[in-house]
Amino acid sequence: MASGLDDVKEALKVISLGQAKLLSAVETVSQRVSELEKEEDRRRPASTGIDGIKRTETPLAGGFTPSPSAVLPAEAGTQSPPPSSASPDVKSTFSSRVVLTTYPKQLGIRPLSLDWGAADPLQRGPVTVSRAPSTIGRRNAIGAHGGSYSIYYALAVASRELDADHKPDYTNTEPAVNIGPFPQWGDKKKIVAMDPWGHLVPWLFKDTIEKENGMSSMAHMKLPELEESVKSGRLVPDGKVCLNASGELSVTKFAVEPVWYLPGVAERFGIDEGTLRRSLFEHTGGMYPELITRSDIKVFLPPIGGLTVYCFGDPARMSDSTKRLALRIHDECNGSDVFCSDICTCRPYLMFGIEEAVKEAQKGGSGVVIYFRKEGRALGEVTKYLVYNARKRGEDRASDYFKRTENIAGVKDMRFQALMPDILHWLGITKIDRMLSMSNMKHDAIVGQGIPIHERVELPSSWIPADSRVEIDAKINAGYFTTGHRMTEEELKAVQGRNWEE
Ligand SMILES: [Zn+2]
């Protein structure tokens, strides 16, 4: 027995010695590759930017023609692509091997430094997510640019409508107004769901091939409700914010795509980063394996909608604490916002919010409406229609309003306002004088981020369509802010919408 154990011990010793030799060999090869890369960097003209990865021609496989690809260990996490029916004379934009995932200690993996929350943008570094041959080993983020639109980008490349090597021409595309930088931009606890430098990427980080993920612009907008506001005398044209008798408005807009710093996002939800990464990986059908394999990469560009800020009046006033600020945080409801469905109060509240924002701007303050792409309480329009059908085929009573959603979706609401206040920090907002919202979730998230709300303003009942009383009364009963009457359960049963036949 003893000699058998000794044999096993001896065998283990041999294995571990062999492993040590192998590791040292890998280390030597690694060093040599890195030396060669440096040599190549020196030889390459400066204009090629951050491209630091050795390229090689790869043989034909699965119908793919040779194209440059990064030198990564071929076996780990790579796969031959599915057969392509493309004719052999058409050059493919893809390399012959697909890199499914990368590992922190893999050869050629040298992520660009990304110091999230650093106040100096150059120290912070660019969010680098492209899987182009020149950056795949230098990526410091998971996912793809453009939120949900990344899928259309993929379609455009696949159908050869778009050259994956296309270089944007940024002439005259600079932001319309200057915002910040504010101290909040250098606080990794305050901004976790967007890139504070995202709108300046092409100018700050000239050497990268990365895209911007935020931008500002200016526009005029015309809404029939605002023409009514002028007619009724509630809104008086001033030629600057409200331009004329037709209620035309002048507005500065900021579009933002989501960029998540995963440790910060996990902290906002009170969960650990591992649980967040695992859930994101599992419930996107395994779309982003690096959520699991690259714990060294902390930034994720999720495939979800972003937000737009509509600012009335001088944008500089938003961050000026001596000026008053009126704010509406609005979550998308396409049926009402765009197509004027009367089952909810979304468009009326949006219009009321815009009117009040304009008034505040006319009085020398600032009015801001922020529009988040979170359709149907972030459950999506399909789920929303299931709920509508169930409500209208039933009795559609305010007392059952939340129950119907919960029965179908399993939750009342998935908008999770925890990440919403980031945009306020980015705009430099430090207090809100008039909050044009009745939602407790929005209120608590903002106040929880240290931004006080001085006054909450509910939607006046003159703006509420008859069929949407079910929604608004149910919300008020559930604790939404009101200065008016909060109905009892009994009274709620009496609030009924139109039925299926009407
Ligand atoms: Zn709605």
UniProtKB/TrEMBL annotation:
Keyword Hydrolase: yes
Gene3D superfamilies assigned: GTP cyclohydrolase II (3.40.50.10990)
Residue stretches making up the GTP cyclohydrolase II domain: 324-457
Keywords per UniProt: GTP-binding, Hydrolase, Nucleotide-binding
A GO MF term: GTP cyclohydrolase II activity
Keyword GTP-binding in record: yes
Positions of the GTP cyclohydrolase N-terminal domain: 97-283
Pfam families recorded: GTP_CH_N (PF12471), GTP_cyclohydro2 (PF00925)
CDD domains: GTP_cyclohydro2 (cd00641)
Region listing for Disordered, in residue ranges: 28-92
One biological process term in Gene Ontology: riboflavin biosynthetic process
UniProt xrefs under InterPro entries: GTP_CH_N, GTP_cyclohydro_II, RibA, RibA-like_sf
Biased composition (Basic and acidic residues): 34-44
Similarity comment: family membership: Belongs to the GTP cyclohydrolase II family.
Protein name: GTP cyclohydrolase II
